Automatic annotation (TrEMBL):
Domain Pseudouridine synthase I TruA alpha/beta: 5-104
Pfam families, sorted: PseudoU_synth_1
InterPro entries referenced in this protein's UniProt entry, alphabetically: PsdUridine_synth_cat_dom_sf, PsdUridine_synth_TruA, PsdUridine_synth_TruA_a/b_dom, PsdUridine_synth_TruA_C, TruA/RsuA/RluB/E/F_N
Protein's name according to its UniProt entry: tRNA pseudouridine synthase
GO biological process entries: tRNA pseudouridine synthesis
Organism: Gracilibacillus boraciitolerans JCM 21714
Keywords, sorted A to Z: Isomerase, tRNA processing
C-alpha cells in the first residue's frame, strides 16, 4: 500500500532534507522511524523536493510503501509519536500505487522573509533574514520583474542530469513560470 503524507519541519537543526553520511537529515529521521515500525525492514521515503541545511518546510509531500496493516487514520499519530519535535506529519492518506511525490507535484511555493528593523529579533533569527540597512524598494521592484515569465533552470542541474518522467520520457529542461 502506498501512503502520501504532508509534513512540516523546522530545518534549523537539520543538514537538509536528503540523507547524508554522518548528518542529521529529515529523510533520515523519517526512514529510521518507518524502519523501526517495520521491524528493521528498510523503508524508503520519496519527497516532492529537497531542502538545504537550515531551510524549513510547511506542507512538503512525501510518499512511502508499506505492508503494515495499520488503519490509515492511525498513521499520523503513530509517526508523530516517534518523530522528533522538529518534524510533524500534518496529514496522511492512501494513494494509488502509481502516485509519485516528486513527479506528481502540481506546484511549489518558496518564501524568503526579510526582517527590516533597527534591532535583531532573536525569536525570528531562524525564520527570516535580518537587515538593518535602508532598502531601495524601487531597485528591488525592478530586479524582481526579472523573475516574471518562463525561465529555463537547466544551468542549475548537474552536467549529465536528466529526470525520468511518468511515461519514461527524459526531461532536460527545468522551467518556472511566474506572474506578477
Amino acid at each position: 500500500m502506498r501512503l502520501k503524507a504532508t509534513i512540516s519541519y523546522d530545518g534549523t537543526n537539520f543538514a537538509g532534507y536528503q540523507i547524508q553520511p554522518n548528518a542529521r537529515t529529515v529523510q533520515g529521521k523519517l526512514e529510521n522511524v518507518l524502519t523501526k515500525m517495520h521491524k528493521g525492514q528498510p523503508v524508503r521515503v520519496i519527497a516532492s523536493g529537497r531542502t538545504d541545511q537550515g531551510v524549513h518546510a510547511v506542507g512538503q509531500v512525501i510518499h512511502f510503501d508499506t505492508n503494515l496493516e495499520i488503519p490509515v487514520e492511525n498513521w499520523k499519530k503513530a509517526l508523530n509519536t516517534m518523530l522528533p519535535e522538529d518534524i510533524e506529519v500534518l496529514h496522511i492518506t492512501r494513494v494509488a500505487d502509481h502516485f509519485h511525490a516528486r513527479f506528481d507535484v502540481k506546484n511549489k511555493e518558496y518564501r524568503y522573509i526579510l526582517l527590516h528593523t533597527e534591532k535583531k529579533d532573536i525569536f525570528q533569527r531562524h525564520y527570516s533574514y535580518f537587515i538593518k540597512e535602508q532598502l531601495n524598494l524601487d531597485a528591488m521592484k525592478k530586479a524582481s520583474s526579472c523573475f516574471l515569465g518562463t525561465h529555463d533552470f537547466t544551468s542549475f542541474c548537474g552536467s549529465n542530469s536528466t529526470v525520468r518522467g511518468r511515461k519514461g520520457a527524459h526531461h532536460h529542461r527545468y522551467c518556472c513560470h511566474t506572474t506578477g
